[in-house]
Amino acid sequence: MLTGHYLNQSRSQRILLALEALSLPYRIVPCQREENMLAPPALKKVHLPGKSSVVEDDGAIFAESGAILEYLQETYDADGWLRPASAAGRREYRFWLRYAEESPVSLLLM
Question: Which site in 7, 24, 71, 93 is 20 to 30 Å from 79, CA atoms measured?
Answer without folding.
Answer: 7
